[in-house]
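pls read this protein.

:::
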Amino acid sequence: MADATALLQAIFDETASAHRRFAGQGFTAVAAAADAIGRAVTTGKKVLAFGNGGSAGDAEHLVAELVGRFEGERRSLAGVALTADSSVLTAIANDYGYERSFARQIEGLGQAGDIAFGISTSGRSPNVQVALAAAKAGGMTTIALTGRDGGPIGAQADIHVNVAEASTARIQEVHRTVLHAICSLIEQRLKSAS
């Protein structure tokens, strides 16, 4: 039991430290992402969110908070998780290759002024990179939520929120907090406008 307690303490200490490190440098990009999304969804545009694995879950979580609600009662906001439709994903992967799994959806669903929100803990997921390029070509604003050094995905995005940690687990934990912070800022914006 003592070993379990020590391990748990180390995990929670590492998580808290990762959050503190991000808080020391990441707020400007988070505010910019929230502002871009807030402007888009209040002018009839939508958020298209995507990622792989845990980042797919985060994309779906973000969209749930937008379409449903976060903490306050408000109107529904337009968002689609490009990870959620298994028939679409598998058809595109089968017919075009997995690298096009999100880009093809961006081309069909995205419009100029929409937000393409790509999440990648490595900053190097090929299908996220290809999707952000397709979004830029379609006149969308691109936001990347990444980890490590941000990789080519962070470099190509209009707005780059980077959690510069090495551990995938710590990156994902901070990513969830960042997504909640973005939702909180958007809801505050809507409350101020009403």
